[in-house]
Design goal:
The protein has 513 residues and is an all-alpha fold. Strands 1-2 form a two-stranded antiparallel sheet. Strand 1 and strand 2 form a beta hairpin. Helix 8 packs antiparallel against helix 10.
Length: 513
């Protein structure tokens, strides 16, 4: 009788090994993005020649494919090359945050904090803490990619576990768990606004608030944490095995008196910085609030201040620790730390340049928009109107598929909300439920699409520990998380629909009429 228990892991290992080999057989990621950019130019010319076009689901305007393989396209490419690179969204976030983190790392704060965490935390808790921290980091927009992921790799390495497993667990929480949280963030408000516009095609008075999916994303936080922990322990770490690279782990020795004093100085600085932030946000007329929204709503919160604030937090924490532990002697130490950090970004800058050009070309051609609308129309044409749960499942997987070619959560929802929100409203289902289904699909494939803006940064972090890491390595490592999240989260959505529980405050599953 065949041993099915051992056959399944062997089959999974073969599948993931194939994915990794195929992915790593591709050219260098920078070269691949350059090739994709060229392919986009050729595809845009063919698409325009055959008259590829769709109607905008909201305005009815015809959106046609735009060729870049002509004089106008050439001029646009030449004129916008520098602007596309310097305005590439992750670039500024990465550089500014790393400048602050560099001071904290050079001063010894990162190492001391990791040792304090590891020495005081049971080993079995490390993985769920990393995944959970990744999910919660989404309150700060994209900063989890820059701050948490390298720290997660360092923590795993310090306790003798594979650092890429820590990177994967953090990435699964930050990106795969993008639509889960215990708190409300800017994306909740943005998606609610887009859902409101779509809902008003049917009911001009309907409003979807930023709290529309709060109950659902709250419960999803624990789901993502549990599933992410299970996949890390049962699939990812056994496949990666033990780490035998050349990077030495942080020695787990007890903190010295100087290090403890440095951490106390850091804690005092963090309390002061947080107090300043609270004073600037909470009182009416606070100096950090958006004057256009005097009442304390999500739109009034200074999400645009987060990156500079994190730079100040990293820089100030490093300085406080350095003064307390006496590891910073002069300004040369500080500037030298920043210089060293910029030196490590060389490979990422090359990747970012070509990735930025490709993503820009793809947007200019309208191909992403056209594929998204055609996919949505195709799903509706399946005739599942009488089967709401299969239709919702279809929406989840449509969003997951579109996410492979259109990275922005709000951009995708702007494309397909005017189709699906009115359609499901006519069937008696609320826009809040439709938005929740979309958010599931939007999250689960974030971690396996090279078009995700931070994917080049993930490769850069991984290559610190393994220089041979390629796109295939990351995709093969993250694929089990993506599949597990898709299955578990879809089951949660189905269960939610069957129970009839609201997905958020004043957000029932069904319309009153």
């Amino acid at each position: 009788m065949p041993d099915t228990k051992s056959a399944s892991p062997r089959l999974l290992a073969r599948v993931l090994g194939t994915v990794e080999r195929v992915g790593n057989a591709l050219p260098e990621p920078a070269t691949l993005f350059a090739m994709l950019a060229v392919f986009t130019l050729l595809a845009s010319a063919v698409a325009q020649a055959v008259g590829l076009a769709v109607q905008h689901p909201a305005s009815g305007e015809t959106i046609s494919a735009v060729s870049l393989l002509n004089l106008a396209g050439f001029q646009k490419i030449v004129q916008e090359t520098v602007h596309v690179f310097v305005s590439f969204h992750p670039l500024g976030v990465v550089i500014v945050c790393l400048l602050g983190i560099a001071v904290a790392e050079k001063a010894g704060l990162i190492g001391a904090a990791v040792r304090a965490l590891v020495l005081s935390t049971p080993r079995s808790w490390l993985t769920p803490i990393v995944v959970f921290a990744g999910v919660m980091s989404n309150v700060g927009a994209d900063v989890g990619y820059v701050l948490l992921l390298p720290l997660a790799a360092t923590i795993f390495h310090a306790v003798g576990r594979h650092p890429l497993a820590g990177l994967a667990a953090g990435f699964a929480g930050v990106s795969g768990g993008f639509s889960a949280n215990l708190l409300i963030s800017a994306i909740d408000v943005i998606l609610g606004g887009l859902s409101t516009e779509a809902a008003r095609l049917i009911d001009p008075t309907y409003t979807v608030t930023g709290l529309a999916n709060y109950y659902f994303i709250f419960i999803s936080t624990f789901l993502v944490t549990g599933i992410g922990t299970w996949v890390t322990h049962r699939v990812v770490e056994p496949r990666l095995g033990s780490y035998d690279g050349g990077i030495k782990p942080e020695a787990m020795v007890p903190l010295s008196a100087a290090e403890k004093r440095g951490l106390w100085f850091t804690g005092v600085f963090a309390v002061i910085a947080t107090a300043v932030m609270v004073v600037g946000i909470v009182p009416e007329g606070g100096f950090l609030r958006n004057p256009a929204y005097p009442d304390l709503k999500m739109r009034a919160l200074p999400f645009s201040y987060l990156v500079p604030f994190l730079f100040v937090l990293g820089f100030g924490s490093g300085m406080a620790y350095g003064l307390g532990a006496k590891t910073i002697k002069s300004d040369r130490d500080v500037v030298g730390a920043m210089n060293d950090a910029m030196g490590t970004l060389g490979a990422y800058l090359v990747l970012a340049f070509f990735a930025a050009q490709f993503i820009a070309y793809f947007n200019w051609t309208n191909l992403g928009f056209i594929f998204a609308v055609k996919g949505a129309n195709g799903l509706r044409a399946l005739g599942l109107d009488e089967w709401p749960i299969p239709m919702m499942i279809g929406l989840v997987f449509l969003a997951a598929t579109i996410n492979m070619i259109v990275g922005s959560a709000s951009a995708k929802w702007a494309l397909i909300a005017p189709i699906f929100v009115p359609m499901f409203m006519l069937l008696g289902f609320s826009p809040e439920l439709v938005q929740a289904a979309y958010r599931v699909g939007d999250s689960v494939t974030n971690i396996i699409t090279p078009l995700m803006a931070y994917f080049p940064l993930i490769i850069t972090f991984a290559r610190k520990y393994d220089r041979d890491t390629g796109m295939g390595t990351i995709i093969a490592t993250m694929l089990p998380y993506s599949v597990a999240f898709a299955i578990a989260w879809t089951i949660l959505l189905i269960a939610w629909m069957l129970t009839g529980l609201p997905v958020g405050p004043s957000s029932p599953l069904y319309l009153a009429s």
